[in-house]
Design a protein that fits this description.
This protein is mainly α and about 180 residues long. Helices cover about 80% and strands about 0% of the residues.
């Protein structure tokens, strides 16, 4: 009986921990003004180049093995920075989506859409981060890292629609912060 209580308590604790990690610890309160200060831009073209398998293959064939491993590790470390930024930005947008879900019907629908996409991106990005860290030392591990860019772009587009309806004059500035 005691073992069962310990496992249930541990499972509950793990669930709370995973939820807090997925939701993020950002101080964002859910306002559009915070996007400029609470987020960091992600260059999707550069990220996609870093994780492009064709680019890896090109480097593998054109560099000596030792040089390729060094370059590959640097590229993976740079990709980690982009994925970390994507996850952090998703946490901010998750809070904004949650805040919007308590407003009028149109804003609530957009808020739920943004919150759902941001949560899925954040969870996926955290998983990919673990794999990328492992790939730095074990390069044979593979993962569809490109999906982070696709999901981030989807979230960015959803936020862009929101910014254009809520703050048309500032929409470009808000999107540039992502």
């Amino acid at each position: 009986m005691t073992i069962t209580i310990i496992f249930v308590a541990a499972g509950f604790g793990l669930a709370v921990f995973l939820f807090s990690v997925a939701r993020g610890t950002t101080a964002a309160k859910g306002t559009l003004e915070e996007v400029g200060s609470a987020t960091r831009p992600v260059d999707l073209a550069a990220f996609r180049n870093l994780v492009d398998p064709a680019e890896d293959e090109f480097l593998r064939t054109n560099l000596p093995a030792a040089a390729f491993r060094r370059v590959q590790r640097e590229r993976l470390r740079a990709a980690i920075v982009y994925v970390e930024r994507s996850a952090a930005n998703a946490a901010v947008l998750l809070r904004i989506g949650e805040a919007l879900s308590r407003e009028d019907a149109e804003a609530a629908a957009m808020g739920r859409e943004i919150a759902n996409t941001a949560l899925r991106l954040r969870v996926y990005a955290l998983l990919v981060l673990a794999i990328l860290h492992a790939r730095v030392w074990f390069p044979s591990i593979t993962t569809p890292v490109q999906e982070v860019g696709t999901r981030y772009e989807e979230l960015r587009n959803q936020f862009g629609r929101l910014a254009r309806t809520r703050r048309p004059a500032e929409a470009g500035h808000l999107l540039a912060a992502l």
